[in-house]
Model the fold of this input.
Amino acid sequence: LEHLKQTKLFQCTCVRCSDPSEFGTYFSAMKCSGFNKELNCGGMLMPENEKSWSEGKWVCNKCQGSVETPRILNIVNRCKMDFEAMEKTNEQHCNKYIQHYSRWLSPNHHYIVDVKILLSQIIGGGSPDAIKRIPEESLMNKIKICQELIALFQKVCPGKRR
Done:
């Protein structure tokens, strides 16, 4: 929902976008444990209501702990600035971004997904033979990332196949 607002300048009110979990994708959610270290519940923080995107608080879907929206926005703004500044053709920079921001962002957060898409193209990209020359660790990372993206896209676009 917030991703559409930021990138398309439009606020969707469909059933899926009105669901705080965005149909279980957690595309804008934050990890509760990233903000509440003593609460390692594994839950996701989501806006308490529509106004919570800009004010109010975000509430964990497991422990009901809450975080004030300005703290959430501070992290999201840092994610955005670092994403914009990141060298998007550098595999190490992309991996470092995911490793760093995975503390706060859900695994399917739109910034993490954007970087995973970049990595899926970078690793073994370039020439048809490039995939044969990449280290096994990078290849396994690419497979894992692609599987995660496929699972996400099946939720976002069920029934769509390319």
User: Anything to note?
Assistant: The chain has eight helices and four strands. Residues 2-156 form one domain. The chain has a mean pLDDT of 87. The radius of gyration is 17 Å.
